[in-house]
Structures are given as C-alpha cells and as structure tokens.
C-alpha cells in the first residue's frame, strides 16, 4: 500500500514532501550510529507486531508520514491501515497495524508518533473551529504561523480538519500589512504600487485597523481582500455593511474556538487563526507492541 493512499481525498500533499520530511526526521533521530538501543538488544532477525492506537477522540492526520517512516527503515514492514487521514476516530481505535523487523518498528516508533500526534492535533483543533461555523458562510483558515520546515504538512492537517489554507508563503499572494503601509506612504500609494507590479492572477489583500481605513481602501477600488485586524464584533458587523460585497472580508486577531461562532455571525467571509497551527495540543497516540 503506497503511503499516499492514506491522504485525505480532498487535500493534496506532495509525495516528495512526505519523503523529504521523513528523511530529515529520521536523520535527526538516528544520527551517526543509528538506534544503538535496538541494535544492542534486539536480534536482527526478530519480528514484531505493533498497533498504532488513538488514545483520544479526534481527527486523524499524518498517517502517510507514519507509513513512510517505517518503509524508509525497512521495505519488509507490512502495514494495514484501519482509517485514513481526515477520519474522525474514537478513543481506543486501532489506526495502523505494523508487522515486520523489530528493529525497524522500534526505531521508527517515535518519529511516526511525532508526525501523527502533531498533525492530528492540528486537524482535531481545526475541526472544533469548523463545527462552530456551521450554518454560516464563513470559512476558517490558517496562517503562516507554522513550525519552520513543516508548513506544507501543517497546512495539509488544517485541510484534514475541514479548514482552509491562507497563503503558503510570501510568494503566492500579496498581503499588505501596517508596516508596508507605513513604509510605502499610505494606503493609496501602497495599493497603487502593488497593482502596477503584479500579474492579473495575483490577489491583493490589505490589512486595516479601523473603519476609516476600510473606507479609504474601498474608495481606491484596488484591493481584492481586506483583512480586518483585531476588530470587535460590532465593528466587524459595520465593516460588512460598509463593504456591501465589494471586497472579500477576513477577520483576524482574537479568533479562538470560543469566539469563532460570534465572528461567523457578523457576516465576514473568512476568519484566520494562527492558533490552528501554532497552539494545537498534541493528539494522544501510541504504539503498542502485541507480544
């Protein structure tokens, strides 16, 4: 079974990204001498049978990386998947069954659990946010507040939880923030400069802190999206009325699982939260050896 068969059906993650992330993680863990504990205590021919178990309820993500971890350590490892990424699971559910050379199973245990625990934590938290937006048009999305080197994986986990991705990097959309406005000399000059230098397929988003700034942006007609930064609920409602559908509106700042329902009710199109990737608790998952 290829590891990519376990990917969420509606969320892409490059096979090259999976292989590279696992390779880097194993290199970090195995170092120069390999798993000296397994080598010293487990005969090379010993086989092991293990079960990857979810110890809490939530949404699973990261299984392709777990599979790739064991496969990179030994092509003789056989893996049966009982769920796939994006599935909601109950506590105690068997996620994967792994059989093969014991050294490979034991050496890959922590790396596999790190991937599944981290990404399932993000997917589970995202799903909690999404549940609070039911019945509204608003979509919840992540930010660039990701673990260095793991952005593609963590943004994939957001999709597994039912969320949406904001830009992946500085190169795929223009987001003009307060410091850009200050350096460029104001809202109109910075928008004019952006429009003069980007292609027709590049979206232009600008951050505003006040309704006066929003009005100035609307008067220019040069923004596709306006990020409403740290506005209270009443101000968000007034912003929606003022924009009247002329631009896409994104709420940001103070977007938590407790506030998301009220933010959705204001009528904004999107809400972005760095907490999805920055503050997600680890998902409790374990590898149990079946003696």
Summarize the structure in words.
- This protein is an alpha/beta fold.
- The protein has two domains: 3-131 and 280-289, Alpha-Beta Complex (Aldehyde Oxidoreductase, domain 3), CATH 3.90.1170; 173-273, TIM Barrel (Alpha-Beta Barrel), CATH 3.20.20.
- It has eleven helices and twelve strands.
- It has helices at 15-30, 36-41, 63-73, 102-131, 151-160, 178-184, 187-197, 211-220, 233-243, 260-264, 275-278, and strands at 47-54, 58-59, 78-81, 88-89, 94-101, 139-141, 174-176, 204-208, 225-229, 248-252, 270-272, 285-289.
- The strands form three sheets. Strands 6-11-10-9-8-7 form a six-stranded parallel sheet.
- Helix 1 crosses helix 3.
- The longest helix has 30 residues, at 102-131.
- The two termini are 25 Å apart.
- The model has no long low-confidence stretch (mean pLDDT 96).
| SSE string, helices as H and strands as E | HHEEHEEEHEHEHHEHEHEHEHE
Query: In CATH, what is the class of the largest domain?
Result: Alpha Beta
Estimate the helix proportion, in percent.
40-55%
CATH topology of the largest domain: Aldehyde Oxidoreductase, domain 3
What would you call the shape?
Answer: elongated
| Biggest pleated sheet | 6 strands, parallel
What class, by secondary structure content? alpha/beta
Roughly what is the average pLDDT, rounded to an integer?
Answer: 96
Between the first and last Cα atoms, what is the distance in angstroms? 25 Å
CATH-assigned homologous superfamily of the largest domain: Quinolinate phosphoribosyl transferase, N-terminal domain
- Poorly predicted regions: none
- Please state the CA-atom Rg, rounded to the nearest Å: 23 Å
Number of helices: 11
Percent of sequence in beta strands: 15-25%
- What is the total domain count? 2
Quaternary state of this entry equals single chain
Q: Record the strand order, biggest sheet.
A: 6-11-10-9-8-7
The CATH architecture name of the largest domain reads Alpha-Beta Complex
